Amino acid sequence: MWLYVAAVLAGLYLLRRWHRERQTVPWLSEKYVLITGCDSGFGNLLARQLDARGLRVLAACLSEAGAARLRADASPRLQTVLLDVTSSQSVAAAAAWVRERVGHQGLWGLVNNAGIAIPSGPNEWMTKSDFVKVLDVNLIGLIEVTLSLLPLVRQAQGRVVNVASMLGRVSLFGGGYCISKFGVEAFSDSLR
Predict the structure, then answer these.
(1) What is the pLDDT of residue 35?
(2) Domain ranges for the chain
(3) What Gene Ontology terms describe what this protein does at the molecular function level (predicted)?
(4) CA separation for the pair 69, 136 (Å, rounded)
(5) Which DSSP helix (H) or strand (E) runs through 35?
(6) Which residues are marked as active site?
């Protein structure tokens, strides 16, 4: 008896999983996604993967060299913009550039990926400017980019994805990284 119940539950689970994996987003090739921090790492990888799936990727890079490398690895559909999340002028210029690209469609996705971890070390070795440098990129920059683009995300009924870390919940070392990721968790909760 229990074996039959387990088999039926396993079958229902597999059927549900198959159904969820078969669902697709309509008009995927018409949707715009902005990703920050695309020079290297997770942002670069995500930009290339979403581009390969047909989305219109707007990749924000810190350097022209990083943007050129990404454009060389992607389709012509992917567009890059230079963005320093610590500069209000750069954020405003990038927001205007995104607004011009997406038009009335809005921004279907905003992925706040830009971040740094260095300088880090025991808190006694850090200075205030060491903390501020990391917090400016990982938290304050993320907040400014989000607030600048939130009207476009709402217009498309899109989503905001903030890249945090488990170190936002458990602090394993000193410096601004864990503090900034804890702040990202709190900001994300307040956006919900």
Answers:
(1) 96
(2) 32-191
(3) oxidoreductase activity
(4) 26
(5) strand 32-36
(6) 177
Superfamily designation of domain 32-191: NAD(P)-binding Rossmann-like Domain (3.40.50.720)
* Residues 74, 51 contacting (CB under 8 angstroms): yes
Task: Kindly state the tokens that stand for 151.
Answer: 């009207």
CA count, 13 A, side-chain hemisphere, 130: 16
Helix or strand (DSSP H, E) at 181: helix 176-191
Q: Which of 154, 25, 137 is nearest to 90 (CA)?
A: 137
Under 8 Å between Cβ of 61 and 39: yes
Radius of gyration, alpha carbons of the chain = 20
Cβ neighbours for 39, distance < 8 A, ≥ 6 positions apart: 61, 62, 63, 65, 66, 67, 69, 70
For the chain of 192 residues, list the mean pLDDT of each consecutive stretch of 10: 87 89 74 92 92 92 92 91 94 95 92 87 83 90 96 93 80 78 90 86
**Per-residue pLDDT, 168:** 65
78-87, long-range: CB within 8 Å, 24+ apart, which pairs? 78/47, 78/48, 78/51, 80/38, 83/36, 83/114, 83/145, 85/36, 85/114, 85/136, 85/137, 85/141, 85/142, 85/144, 85/145, 86/136, 86/137, 86/140, 86/141
Strand, coil or helix: 162: strand
